[in-house]
TrEMBL record:
Organism of origin: Malurus elegans
PROSITE patterns assigned to the protein according to its UniProt record, in alphabetical order: DENN
Protein name: DEN5B protein
Keyword Lyase belongs to the record: no
Taxonomic path: Eukaryota, Metazoa, Chordata, Craniata, Vertebrata
Entry superkingdom: Eukaryota
Length: 261
């Protein structure tokens, strides 16, 4: 388990993650920092879900700045895949049995009344809500399907967010599709790593992902730096008034701290 979150029910806990594979194995000018990439890809660790939970893929990005000021950009697509290991499913069931036993013990210890009087003191509506909550936040190996988070990450020297997002989504569809793409998955990964060049400054580049072509554009020397992040999301996250206030603080050269999860 990652962190001290034993008070949470097992499906709400986070577990320690690790890098399963990375390609290429190493680059002299850009060594692979396994711990940093692992932490930035899954900052909250592994998480489990059941068929009752939302399992839509999510994309986020990160930035690694080294001591010499060089930057590396990472783009991560996190998704959930079914747990096929009977051992892990059994362990989750055991964790829930232990958790429920602890919860029952704490209720009995804190209550001086009998279970009959306790049950009679709960009205019908509360009992129904409690039952729904327990059903939603529980795991039964014979009834539920267990899923675990997994991610694929693309690390690039420039922040081509839209191009990386499209490629990762297409790769994810190829992994989960019942009908495989025309070529092996390794071919598409080799293509983007070794055969797709960075576009020259001031030029656009069109390359093929897995299913559809992808276009990325690089600003020229006299243009503003590459900013491939959608402004709409900034407005949705901060709101118009907050964004104007932040922009004002930038113009006034004030110190700005953005705090989030």
């Amino acid at each position: 388990v990652a962190g001290e979150n034993f008070d949470q029910s097992p499906l709400r806990r986070t577990f320690k993650s690790k890098v399963l594979a990375h390609y290429p194995q190493n680059i002299e000018w850009n060594p692979f920092d396994q711990d940093a990439v692992n932490m930035l890809c899954m900052p909250k660790g592994l998480s489990f879900r059941t068929q009752a939970d939302n399992r839509d893929p999510q994309l986020h990005s990160f930035l690694i700045t080294r001591e010499d000021g060089s930057r590396t950009y990472g783009f991560v697509l996190t998704f959930y895949e079914e747990v096929t290991s009977k051992q892990i499913c059994t362990a989750m069931q055991t964790l829930y049995q232990m958790h429920n036993a602890e919860q029952y013990s704490s209720v009995c210890a804190s209550s001086s009344c009998s279970m009959d009087s306790l049950a009679s003191s709960i009205d019908e509506g509360d009992a129904t809500s409690l039952a729904k909550l327990q059903r939603y936040n529980s795991y039964d190996i014979s009834r539920d399907t267990l899923y675990v988070s997994k991610c694929i990450c693309l690390i690039t020297p420039l922040p081509f967010m839209q191009a990386c997002k499209k490629f990762l989504i297409q790769l994810y569809k190829a992994v989960t599709s019942q009908q495989p793409p025309p070529l092996p998955l390794e071919s598409y990964i080799h293509n983007i790593l070794y055969e797709v060049p960075l576009p020259p400054p001031g030029r656009s580049l069109k390359f093929y992902g897995v299913y559809e072509p992808i276009i990325c554009q690089r600003p020229g020397p006299n243009e503003l730096p590459l900013s491939d992040y959608p402004l709409r999301e900034v407005f949705e996250l901060l709101g118009l008034e907050n964004l104007v206030q932040v922009f004002t603080c930038v113009l006034l050269e004030m110190q700005i701290l953005l705090y989030s999860q």
